[in-house]
Write a structure and sequence with these properties.
- The chain has 230 residues and is an alpha/beta fold.
- It is built from nine helices and six strands, in the order αβααβαβαααβαββα.
- Helix 4 packs across helix 5.
- It is elongated, with a radius of gyration of 28 Å.
- The protein starts with 16 loop residues before the first helix and ends with a helix.
- About 3% of the residues have low confidence.
């Protein structure tokens, strides 16, 4: 008869409390440093592009004061494209719609209300941007090829064309605006420009560095005017 020896449980060696205390002393400083690094990264993350149609945001970023000082670059997307809408075209099929021309005129009036005496205006040479700028300001606007190509030099070209103590308003395309916003606001919320929306960028008078302040959609102007913010 085969007799099986009983299994004997082998207890794991107990870890002395002194070792736990030593391990804790070693790990706690590292954990604290890691936590501090994560907190700092969160606090220093790029800000979201603010919706400036909310009056408090307009005040927070000091937009009106910066405009008066000539510290801003504003990128305005062209009005509604005819070739991507069922609305009647203004004229050329590669241009904007009749509804888009009305919106462009309204946005232009809002900028005129801010004051255009210290503002230079440039436009992309494509039909839709030329039509938009013409309806915004009631006249032909100088065009620049770099406003249609949207290459990696966009930020450099923008700053090169901004004169000291003068705002620069650029009528351009969504790809240009989104590319610039992504470049200046890395890691922040992505901003998709709507037709005739405006992205406001402040340029530091000392360092020359640009900073996104926020955006204003076409219907946001009327909201601010109704609230008597503008």
């Amino acid at each position: 008869m085969l007799v099986t020896a009983p299994e004997v449980a082998v207890a794991s060696p107990a870890i002395p409390l002194r070792s736990f205390a030593r391990l804790r002393r070693l790990l706690l400083p590292g954990a604290a440093v890691l936590l501090l690094a994560l907190l700092s990264a969160w606090l220093m993350r790029p800000a979201y592009a603010l919706d400036l149609s909310r009056g408090q945001h307009l005040s927070e970023v000091g937009l009106l004061q910066s405009w008066k000082k000539g510290e801003l670059v504003v990128l305005v997307r062209h009005a509604e494209r005819c070739d991507q809408s069922s609305n009647p075209c203004l004229a050329d099929a590669s241009g904007i719609t009749i509804e888009g021309s009305d919106t462009a005129q309204q946005v232009g009036e809002a900028f005129k209300a801010l004051g255009m005496a210290h503002t230079d205006v440039l436009s992309s040479p494509l039909v839709r941007t030329v039509q938009t700028s013409s309806f915004m300001f009631g006249k032909s606007v100088a065009t620049q090829d770099w406003l249609k190509s949207c290459k990696a030099t966009l930020q450099h070209d923008m700053l090169a064309h901004k004169a000291a103590h003068r705002n620069l308003l650029l009528v351009t395309h969504s790809t240009c605006i989104n590319e610039l916003e992504d470049d200046l606001n890395r890691g922040g919320a992505h901003y998709d420009s709507a037709y005739t929306s405006a992205l406001f960028v402040a340029v530091d008078s000392q360092t020359g560095k640009p900073k996104v302040l926020g955006y204003l959609n076409a219907d946001g102007w009327a909201k601010l005017q109704a609230e008597r913010v503008l």
